[in-house]
Design brief:
The complex is a heterodimer of chains A (131) and B (271). Chain A has a single domain, classed as Helix Hairpins, CATH 1.10.287.3510. Chain A is 75% helix and 0% strand. In chain A, helix 1 runs antiparallel to helix 2 and helix 2 packs antiparallel against helix 4. The longest helix of chain A has 32 residues. The N and C termini of chain A lie far apart (64 Å). Chain B is an all-alpha fold. Chain B has one domain. Helix content of chain B is 62%, strand content 1%. In chain B, strands 1-2 form a two-stranded antiparallel ribbon. Chain B is globular, with a radius of gyration of 24 Å. Chain B starts with a helix and ends in a 6-residue tail after the last helix. In chain B, 38% of the residues are buried. Classes of the chains: A mainly alpha (131), B mainly alpha (271). Chains A and B meet through helix 1, helix 3 and helix 4 of A and helix 1, helix 2, helix 3, helix 4 and helix 6 of B.
Chain lengths: 131, 271
């Protein structure tokens, strides 16, 4: 694959991911319905996770960061470092996905309780009931 | 309408600036070609018997980072997970899941139930396998817990939540198992320090393998089997915590809305 095509594809992916982050932030800030805010928040989380994974990507031929030799010598380790992708973003994203799911469920519990108490999921109406 | 226009315009400007920084500005560093020096250190020491004081003794680079190199990071992520579930349980503090117990006979058709009964043991076996091999192959406590949490969710959908109550999987039991998992993680964190205090050496919090000035560590091998020291313990305990943490949330979410409202008004229940 040529370098120009590489750069073009990489930039397209980055720009579209940042655009998705912008759209999801618009959903979080401007939509009045809490369920739509939660959906926008999950899209935001996924876009941020994908961005992190993309930063750690390496041009093929690359392998996952798993050593296949259980008794590696210096040559195997050098070859591994020369071909494996960056494992750090993957480690951050893997915890972020599970923790994000738990936090999303907590937000859903709060939204459910809000609906039971106020009979609406519109934040403007919930605000007017204050006092 | 004017406010939404303002939000949209400011977000569009932010997106353009961020996209410029990420692409033409090179703000994300070298992309898709060179490895960052930090990643080279991680990859070079993840399973390297020659660098005894730096290696995590795990062929799986991601698990080595999650529970060894950046272990405290993961520890506090687990604290966030703990607090999120405690928050949900606190919202449901007055609502008992045992009200309105109807016994069996509920749920989807017999075909779905039989297929589910065949699939559930496979699902459990795969989840346990992911947890126990987390230090060797891609996987670990978080992924295994997420795979295992599918089981109570499918059981609730196919058999109804009363089936889980019939299996004695109540909120308090799940809370107990989740607490065992978290206590196990805490114990594994402090075990090297306790051992070092008893024997008069130095040790670090969340220490895995032996370090230059801290000779107390977890064994990398048991017999001929590579267990990567503390990584397998963390994976198993995190598996317990994640599985039963999500089980609590699914149990609470599946309570019928009528029963919840009745209990909130104080018509039925323990008060």
């Amino acid at each position: 694959m040529s370098t120009e095509l590489d750069v073009f594809l990489a930039n397209t992916a980055l720009i579209s991911l940042i655009a998705i982050i912008g759209v999801s932030l618009y959903g979080i800030l401007a939509r009045p319905n809490i369920i739509k805010k939660i959906i926008a928040l999950t899209i935001f989380t996924d876009a941020a996770n994908l961005l992190a994974i993309l930063v750690g990507f390496r041009r093929p031929p690359s392998i996952p960061p798993v050593l296949l030799d259980l008794q590696p010598g210096p040559t195997e380790i050098t070859r591994f470092v020369a071909t494996a992708v960056d494992p750090l973003p993957q480690a951050l994203v893997l915890t972020a996905i599970v923790i994000g799911m738990a936090v999303n469920l907590l937000i859903i519990f709060i939204a459910l309780q809000l609906y039971r108490l106020y009979g609406t999921l519109d934040v403007r109406k919930v605000r007017r009931l204050r006092g | 309408m004017k406010k939404e226009l303002l939000i949209a315009t400011s977000l569009a400007i932010t997106v353009v600036i961020l996209a410029y920084i990420a692409t033409l500005g090179g703000g994300l560093g070298p992309l898709f070609s060179d490895l960052r020096p930090l990643a080279e250190v991680f990859l070079g020491t993840t399973l390297n018997p020659e660098k005894r004081f730096f290696t995590a003794m795990s062929p799986e680079g991601v698990t080595a980072i999650v529970w060894d190199y950046r272990g405290l990071d993961t520890l506090f992520e687990t604290a966030v997970f703990y607090l999120a579930i405690i928050g949900a349980v606190a919202i449901y503090r007055d609502i008992s899941e045992k009200v309105g117990f109807k016994g069996g006979g509920l749920g989807l058709s017999k075909i779905v139930k039989v297929v589910t009964k065949l699939l559930i043991p496979i699902n459990i076996a795969i989840a346990i396998s992911i947890a126990l091999h987390g230090h060797l192959t891609p996987g670990g406590g978080f992924q295994a817990g997420a795979a295992m949490a599918v089981v109570p969710m499918i059981l609730i959908v196919v058999f109804s939540r009363y089936f889980l109550l019939g299996l004695k999987l109540s909120k308090s039991l799940a809370l107990a198992f989740r607490s065992i998992g978290l206590a196990g993680i805490a114990l594994t964190v402090f075990l090297p320090i306790i051992m070092a205090l008893l024997s008069g050496f130095n040790a670090y919090i969340m220490q895995n393998q032996v370090k230059a000035n801290a000779p107390v560590g977890f064994p990398a091998y048991v017999g001929n089997v590579l267990i990567s020291g503390s990584l397998i313990l963390y994976n198993v305990f995190e598996f317990l915590a994640v599985t039963f943490g999500f089980s609590i949330l699914f149990l609470l979410l599946s309570i019928e809305e009528d029963l919840v409202k009745e209990q909130m008004r104080g018509e039925v229940g323990e008060h």
